[in-house]
Amino acid sequence: MLTTFDPLLRAALGVDLTRPEAAKRELELRFDPRGAAAIQLARELSTLLEAGSIANRGELPVRWGRVAKSSEATHDFSIDVVLMNGAGPRHAHPLGELNYCIALEGTPSFDGEPPGWVVLPPSSSHVPTVTNGTMLIV
After folding, report:
1. φ, ψ for residue 23, nearest 5 deg
2. What is the pTM of this model?
3. Fewer Cβ atoms within 10 Å of its own Cβ: the N or the C terminal residue of the chain?
4. Does position 2 have pLDDT exceeding 90, yes or no?
């Protein structure tokens, strides 16, 4: 299953999170949320979700699950997957956070951002919120 996340992990390597808009542009160049690889990834993640292999803890509006802890195999990223259709708990990101968001139902946004990459800089905090539908967030 870990290989499913490889395109996202490779895209994230070396991205500077201190400038979120520039980071988002770079991520979109490396892994286009509208491209063929993104469509294939969405299919694979939907299959894993339906099988109960990801985002299998809790209940909506927030279901979550850890795929992998930070390790050499994950290029030192931890991988969490969250299924959301509302608000989650406030939390902080001392090192920043990269989110790859996939629309599953409706026309959802994550913290006001459309499907695709959402970047939170180091020392940020937020109440993660999906509105107008359901998203799968890696």
Report:
1. -60, -45
2. 0.94
3. N
4. no
